[in-house]
Amino acid sequence: MTRWGMVIDLDRCSGCQACVVACRQENNIPVVGREQAAMGRAIFWMQIIEEREGGHNEGRTRYLPRPCMHCDNPPCVKVCPVGATYRNPEGLVGQIYARCIGCRYCTAACPYTARYFNWYEPSWEPPREKSLNPDVYVRPKGVVEKCSFCVHRIRKAQRKAKDENREIEDGEVIPACAETCPSKAIHFGDLDDPDSEVSKLAGSRRAFRLEEFLGTDPKVIYLREGEWSE
Amino acid sequence: MAQIFPVWTNKIPVYIAAGTIILVLAIVGFFWYYGSPWYTDVGYRPAQPVRYSHKLHAGDLGIDCRYCHYDVEVSAVANIPPTQICMNCHKTIGTDNERLLPVRESWSSGVPIQWVRVHQLPDFAYFDHSAHLRAGVGCVSCHGNVANMEIVELKKPLSMGWCLDCHRNPDTQLRPRNEITNMNWTPPADQVQFARKVRSENNIAPPEDCSGCHR
Prior knowledge:
- Chain A has a single domain, classed as Alpha-Beta Plaits.
- Chain A is built from 7 helices and 10 strands.
- Chain A has helices at residues 18-26, 34-38, 75-79, 105-109, 151-163, 176-180, 197-202; strands spanning 4-9, 47-53, 60-66, 85-87, 93-95, 116-117, 144-145, 186-190, 207-208, 220-223.
- Chain A has a 4-stranded mixed β-sheet.
- Chain B has 10 helices and no strands.
- Chain B has 215 residues and is an all-alpha fold.
- Chain B is elongated.
- Chain B starts with 11 loop residues before the first helix and ends in a 14-residue tail after the last helix.
- The interface between A and B is medium-sized, with 22 and 17 residues.
């Protein structure tokens, strides 16, 4: 069985936000507008978290792209009273919008703040609503949503492999964020396959996971910035 | 000595009995209604802008489904044919038939005919025609015998439970791939053995996971 995971190389990330934009476009993420965004109601399936070190004109900025961690021991699943979110056999933490009652327990339970609530009916600036991705359902008002690891792309690749009667190959599934990343910081693949790119990268000495002490067992693995030999 | 229980307590058994009856009726009614054609819209048969007869075209004339719905094997959606497909034949056949008036109007004005959709799944359920056809599920399995319908109507509930029945056990619905559009195909006596063989050969494992359809 595959166990999908992502490796993000922070040494390569330049904080350009291309993944954030690609994710919005791919997954029909609604735009809430400036006022609502200031109230913390903007939705980001992929978000760049910024951290500044040092003063205004000195020091440096670190960037950390944050998708859903698709934890192997997800805290959000345990609190859902209606079973609208679940961990499937491939390790993806799925969200069934039609079942969600919008109680937002999962939003509160997620230590990575990867879950977002739809406060309004989804809307886009006029020409954009005609360019939605038909493979991804547009979430109505009152449900929680989050990064799906581009599950529609996974299913498409799996079906293609099935039609051609072969196993799915490493690197065949590429989420929108990984596809668009100009510095190729994001890698995606099967963590259970020891020969896959992500498995090899996950074994790196630079590898770490966010909030590991919580025991959530996240499947997004970061590679910390390496030592510069200056 | 005063009585321990006041008089109204004599009615408690009656209340409990009445409450039980109401509860049972409510539970039965709930499942009965949500499984009934009133809720699932089975039998929905809207009037179409053209009095087109599938029975005549697909049944009596024997035109293959894919002559008009040509995208069905490669696309997620089975396309509604454009007017141009109708006019392939009707440029020369039935040119003065008044039933075809809206078709000719659409042909000359370039405005598509507004067909009414009969089989409508909710947006939150993803359905792919090509995947089902490649697995060997015939049109009849979900659409009923369209070649017998004067006006197309909804024959199956298209509910999640109904989808899952087949996804859990597709053996009865699989057929050879060259028979998928055959409305009168009858399963052979060894259907189960045949289905098992096809399933292992073509690697057919219908998803039962939520994210198979809800994505």
